[in-house]
Design a protein that fits this description.
mainly alpha; Growth Hormone, Chain: A; 423 residues
Length: 423
Amino acid sequence: MADMVNTSVPAHLSRQLEGSPWAPLREPLFRSLWVAAVISYTGTWMQNVGAGWLMTQLTMSPLMVSLVQAASTLPVFLVILPAGALADMVDRRRFLLITQGWMVVAAAALGIMSLTRCVTPWVLLLFTFLLGIGAVMNDPAWQAITPEIVSPAQHAPAVALNSVGFNVARAMGPALGGMVIAAAGSGFAFLLNAASFFGVIFFLYRWKRPHFEHVETGRVRDAILTGLRHVKSTPVVRCVLIRTGAFSLGASSLLALLPIVARPHGATGYGLLLGSFGLGALAGAAVLPRLRSRLSVDGVVAFAIVVFAAMTFAAGQVQTFGWLGVVMFVSGTAWIGILACLNVAAQTMSPSFLRARALSMYLLVLQGGMAVGSALWGAVANRVGVPTALLCSAVALLAGLAAVRQYRLTSHQLELAPAVVRD
């Protein structure tokens, strides 16, 4: 992989990127789902703030606090591969209706239990895990339907707009969640998250999917094995997965330990810090196309990892809220620069009939690395303190740069474009 240095954008993607980045919103089907998705993403971020903050009220153990993020991502180890196989085998519309309904029930139940003061640390982790199950089952099918709801000419800008929507929610959701929690408690944030899914459910219920194709076999096990053989036999897929794992393991500490770092600033402060991270991601999405025109994909990723590592270290050192906000903003800018390149690579590394299974393996490595890393850095923080744990994870991120030279994303096999997708 080290000798692949072609940085050109394929002609068909270049033509798509020449038009307005907002053009997909002119298509009613995509516009309806995009608006519903932004509302749903906002609810999800409110849920994340509520869960992290509620755990700090139940216990101040760094390990238990970090396990909130681990519990939400742990399901990738259990169900992501079957989820990808099923998304390639069944009607994705019906499949998504089931997963969305699952998350409504889990979020509503946790909200009611929180309001009635029936939640313990382990109950919170259990329902966070159940919500994670629904999200993981949902993700491969969700990402795979984008080509079905937008015209082919608008596929690339639609992928970029999906990222914009996610980061708009990342900027608004934590701040709104912090205000709701400060005013009414985490339980109301969980109930608002449950309500936020209904826009997507209504869209899916009314959507008349034009077609869907089964894979050749009707057995989930065989479909999974086909996907695994694809990974084993395709160097470019292995490249993307190795790079993703090297990043996610080290990068997980900042968000996992942020509730403890933000504890002196209250629930509203915690939400505003996460909102700063989201605003940084939006800023990064805006400048990324210009940066990609000047640097290779690997250059963008390497630069962003160095910046993110520096901000991870700084988060454990600064005390004032203003400087923490700056650290989180810059961290978000670097974060989207890294995941933009990884996500576009993941979406273009496999043929369409294997897309959901390939995405499920990418999500397994990305979210699995975040889950393992969250638990790891929480355990380290328990022993040596939060600042030292953040320092160690920053060093791990820099050490992971060794993967850049051996496993390059700059490849003629990857249709990389200066666009971003949901991370």
